[in-house]
Structure formats: structure tokens, C-alpha cells
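Dear V.,

Thank you for sending over the compound details. I've combined the ligand you provided, flavin-adenine dinucleotide, with the protein sequence from our construct and run the structure prediction for the complex. I'm sharing the raw inputs here so there's no ambiguity about protonation or stereochemistry in the SMILES, which I know was a concern on your side last time.
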Amino acid sequence: MLKELTIEDLRTSLRGQIISRDDEGYEEARQVYNGMINKKPTLIVRCVDVADVISAVNYARQSGLTLAVRGGGHNGGGLGICDDGLVIDLSGMKGVRVDPAARTARVAGGCTWGEVDHATHAFGLATPSGIISTTGVGGLTLGGGIGHLTRKCGLTIDSLLEVDMVLADGRFVTANETENSDLFWAVRGGGGNFGVVTSFQFKLHPISTIIGGPTLWELDQTEAVLTWYRDFIVQAPEDLNGFFAFLIVPPGPPFPEHLHLKKMCGCVWCYAGPADQAEDVFAPIRDFGPPALYGIQEMPHPALQSAFDALYPPGLQWYWRADFVNELSDEAIAQHVNHGSQIPTMHSTMHLYPIDGATHRVGKDETAFSYRDTIWAEVIVGVDPDPANAEAIKKWTIDYWEALHPYSAGGAYVNFMMDEGQERVKATYRDNYERLAIIKQKYDPDNLFHVNQNIKPATY
Ligand SMILES: Cc1cc2nc3c(=O)[nH]c(=O)nc-3n(C[C@H](O)[C@H](O)[C@H](O)COP(=O)(O)OP(=O)(O)OC[C@H]3O[C@@H](n4cnc5c(N)ncnc54)[C@H](O)[C@@H]3O)c2cc1C
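Below is the predicted structure of the protein with flavin-adenine dinucleotide bound, written out as C-alpha cells.
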């Protein structure tokens, strides 16, 4: 029998720090990105290495405390933290090692995407991620990963080569296509259900500068823009990515003053193909409308990756709803026009991210991410700094989502969901759910890792 671990055993086994309720710094340590989340864990363990993670997992399992794992802390539903439990905080586990010859990067489990982009860009290389560089590599990757390079390179998990993990029983394993391949299949979309990923290895792509930025149109052109966009994007070259958005134009540069605080619709483009073909690729976009703002320019890839960071600092109130979308019918567009035009606050938005192109070349049972055959990941987010507006942004988001959900494909991208229950999780994994439940039973039979979009261990 293993000796029961005490909190003192945990403390002496760590290089990192334990922060408990009475400690200075607790209030700061328990904050996550979404200001709507207000959870109070018993212990926060700031791990600095794999050994710390093993100790913290063993302690959580033996003490029976609820366990949450925090990567970048961005999750909409606050799944990187919990009430009255133990949080493994990976934010102290940093480091990106680029191998420029092999075109790979080894990324520590607590990195953010800005850190990865910074390290890889020095070598003219990049891997696909999301659109805000302060997001954690951990949560974004394990859920799938959708961003500016999705049509060209696929999801983030399609560039994932290997993970190192600490399992529920404290064992340390590596998972890739040949070693623990069932686990590697499951972590590519199955979220944090299977253990703590202490390091990721990614394939890198020769992408250094891109040509991109926003094009904005008047709100009363929305119907025409969306009708054009739905047909344009699916036949555009895969080197071009472009997501549709409703927005209230931020009152500052680079936006011209006459557009400040105006409700508009637009697209954010990223072209990562041959520069001499860019003129032709952008011609239909420039000519359509034409846009009230044409903000396309050449820039380093990390500049686009971090372009929205300042607009979305930590601590804003966020309410999320999402769906996958196969088809944008005229009826769905009419609902978008109706609800998008009622966008309640400057930070609120609706995005339609294309996930066709390279994403479709991976089969829906090749990784846990099932919706390989859909065209868009739709996300509606009510966002505002003022907690007094929480109910208003929530209402707009839910009303909008309920109007559009009948036109959706069924499930939603797990990283765009809050706490919507088991049926929604199952709807998202579709036929892959059963296989995920069997793998969960093998690696985490007691569901130690349940603060996530949870996959229940299979019962026989
Ligand atoms: C402003 C903003 C913009 C976003 N943009 C995009 C986007 O463009 N594309 C996109 O795909 N998503 C995007 N997202 C969603 C994002 O992918 C999710 O919020 C994701 O969960 C964030 O990961 P994190 O590590 O920062 O979060 P956390 O809250 O730390 O963790 C989220 C979940 O992942 C688990 N987890 C995190 N790290 C690990 C690890 N190392 N090992 C095991 N489990 C782990 C946690 O336990 C938790 O269940 C965005 C979110 C925000 C707030």
C-alpha cells in the first residue's frame, strides 16, 4: 500500500509553489480570463516541471479533491479552475524549442500561442493556432484548434506530432502515432479528459509573412455580404482564410475615425500563399461592395496572430454559445441579419470560422474531432467589461443562438462551449464518443480529469 500523502508531503515534493486561501496572491492566482467566472479552489499548485505535475496529480487523487488543470486560463466556461478543489496551474511551465531543420517545435504545457509564434517566427516557420495570442496552447490544442491558417494547414491537432502526459495514476507517458496511439487519437480533440499534457510537439510550416487584415462593410449590406461570402470562401484557394464577423468598430487606430463605434459586418483575411498571386486572390474581395474599409496589408504572421489582443484584455465578462454549420441558407442569413444588427456592446461579436480545406482531408474517425465534414464553426459571444451588463450580453447571445441553432449541423466546437451538459458533448463527438469513452475507461477510469467537456468512462 502506498503511504497516504499529506499536504506537507506535497509541499516538500514541489519545486513550484502552493497557493492556498489564506496566502497572499490567492485572489490574483484564482482569476481566469473570463471575468464572469468566480471560482475559489482550496489549493493552486503552480507547477514548474513534470515532477511537480506528478506530485500534484497523485495528491489530488489520494486526497479526493476535485482536480482542475489550467493551461492559459482562457476557457469560456472557466474549465481551468474549480471550486473547493486543487488546481494544477501550468502557467509556470514555459519553453519552446524549435528544430528548424526538422521543422518541429517542442512546446512546454504552460505556453501561450504568442510564445510559440515568437519562437517559430525567428525561423520563418509557424503552426496553426487561434486568433488571440494570449490563449493557452494546452486547451486550444486539445479541443482541436481553429484559426487563420485552418484552410491551408488544417486544425492545430493536424500539426500535432506528439504529447508527453501525466496520467490519472501518476504515470508519465508519451503518445504519438506509434506509441500509445489510442491516447494520441483521443487527445486530438478530446480535451483535457485523459491527463495533463506537459509538452506538445508540433510540425511547423514555412509561413513567415502573410497578407491579411479586415475588410468592413456597412451593416445594411450584411445580407449581400453573407450571400457572397458563403459561395466565395468554399471555392477560394486554401492559402486564403477568411472569417465573417459582426462588430462595433473599436474607437481607435487602425480604424478611421468616421467608422468608430459603428455597427458593421466584415471579414478578417489571412493569405499565406505565393505573394505574386495575392493580387488575383484578393481581387474579388476588393471588388465586392466595395468595402467601407479595405485593411489588407503584408505583415509578419505573429502580427496578425496578436492583432486583437489589446481589444480583449483579461477580465472582461464573456458569455459563449456555438454550433457547427454545414450550410448558410437564405433563412439562416436572414436570422443573422436580424440578430447581428442588435449586437449589444463594443466587444460582442459573432464569428463564422471556415473549417474546410485541409481540415476536410483528415477523416472524421482519424482523430477525436468528429466534425470534419462541416464548413463553419460559428461562435456567438456577448462580451463587456461591466458586470452590470452580464445579463444583457447573455440574453443577446442565447436569443441569437436559439434563432440559428435550427440551421446548424448539431454539435459545436468544444472550445467555444460553456457548460451545456452531456448531450451537447455527445452531439459534438458523434460516432467518436463511444471510442473516447472506452479510452477514458482505460486511462482515467475514476474520471479524475472531469473539469472539462467531460467524456464519461465507458461502463461494461
Ligand atoms: C479571447 C479568446 C479567443 C479565442 N480564440 C480561439 C480561436 O481562434 N480558435 C480556437 O480554436 N479557440 C479559440 N478560443 C477558445 C480556446 O481554444 C479555449 O478557450 C481553450 O479552452 C483555451 O485554452 P487555455 O489553455 O487557455 O484554457 P484553460 O482554461 O487553461 O483550459 C481549458 C481546458 O483545457 C484543459 N487543459 C489546458 N491545458 C491543458 C494541459 N496542458 N493538459 C491537459 N488539459 C489541459 C483544462 O483542464 C480545461 O479543461 C478562444 C478563447 C478566447 C477566450
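A first observation: The longest strand covers residues 209-218.

Warm regards,
I. M.
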